[in-house]
Amino acid sequence: MAARPARALAVAVVTLLWAASAAAQAVLPTLNVDASASLEGVANQLRALSLESLGTAMTLAGMTHPGPPINVLLIDEEAELAENTPRWIAGFADGSRSLVVMFPDRARGYPTDGLDTLLQHEVAHVLFARAAGGRPVPRWFNEGLAIAAERPAGLSDRSRLAWTLVWDGALDLDQLEALFGQGRGASQRAYAVSGALVRELIRAYGNDAPGRILDQVAAGATFDSAFRTATGAPLNWVVARFWRTQQQWSRWIPFLTGPSFLWMGITSLAVLAIVVHRRRRAARRAAWEEEERIEAELAETRRREAERLARERLLDADPRASGSSYEVH
Question: What's 222's DSSP letter?
């Protein structure tokens, strides 16, 4: 039994070394950035970006050479193409033409969070298209792979995945594909599920698994066949296992979104408000008592000073009164 963990560890180490070696040997893509005069400043920012992060996309694609230069075209919002493209689309890629089109003003919208991640996302699509020999792959795989290439999973990804479970439940792949064409909100949910599903694929079968799948597709295999050959598992089984791993979220979400949790939250806030109010009242009362103490001390000090001055005047008027008693009221 002890041999199994050792064997699994050895496989993991070999996979990591392979990925590191491939990334080190990979030639990074060359980008030709073009823009109108109004976006020349943005174009210069992109030209100045380090392309080292594209090594992840190269590794996932199973590529060591990216192919010919990729043209990146920046589109102003006043251009006809921008006006005819839905506002929630920040960019797109055409692998057959080695072309990436970006709308810089829309870069901060899920799944990307800026110009750099948008650029990585779209360039990754071109690389994956080349790795697949120009043959089509499901959009969920393409988009999920691009998300995995651009950045690690974050809180936004996890929260969107959780709300997708509430909103749509466990989707099959046909339903997932359809979400991409149903508007901004549905598309963002599709991105969240696709990213999580592909990351689970990478976690289970290694960084080289997507590249093996794309290589099989390029050789003429269907995607399902390519997936099974590359991973040794049927695609539907992997998807079902992925949704099973989300069951923990599924058990908690109905409670977190139900009336019981709502009233619990309201009650907790009410109790917190009462506690805070009482503490503030106690603090005010303590402040008042401190003010009263200080005023009493000042009054006593003034009384004693007045008594002293009265005695001094009495002595000045009649030195024989030094032994008499005198009290100020």
Answer: -
| Residue carrying structure tokens 């991409």 | 180
Token reading at 128: 């994956």
Query: Could you tell me the residue ranges of all domains in the chain?
Result: 23-257, 279-323
Judging by beta carbons within 10 Å of its beta carbon (0-12, 13-18, 19+), is residue 35 exposed, middle or buried? Answer: buried
Nearest to 200 by CA among 144, 252, 247, 154: 144
**pTM, whole model, 2 decimals?**
0.67
Q: Which of 227, 248, 89, 235 is nearest to 161 (CA)?
A: 248
Q: Which tokens belong to 174? A: 């046909």
CA dist 208 and 20 (Å) reads 11
Strands of the sheet containing 70-74, edge to edge, are: 31-35, 70-74, 99-102, 91-94
Burial of 171 (0-12, 13-18, 19+ CB in 10 A): buried
Mean pLDDT of 130-155: 91
Domain spanning 23-257: CATH 2.60.40: no
CA distances to 117, 169, 288 from 189, in Å:
18, 11, 56
pLDDT in tens, 152-191: 877 777 777 777 777 777 888 999 999 898 988 888 888 9
Collapse the DSSP code of 71 into the 3-class scheme (helix H, G, I; strand E, B; otherwise coil) and give the result: strand
The predicted-structure confidence for 2-58, as pLDDT tens digits, reads as follows 454 455 444 444 444 444 454 445 689 999 999 989 999 999 999 998 889 899 999
> For 182, what's the count of Cα atoms within 13 Å in the CB-facing half-sphere?
13
Three-state SS for 112-166 is CCCHHHHHHHHHHHHHHHHHCCCCCCCHHHHHHHHHHHHCCCCHHHHHHHHHHHH
Which of 113-127, 128-142, 221-235, 288-302 is least confident?
288-302
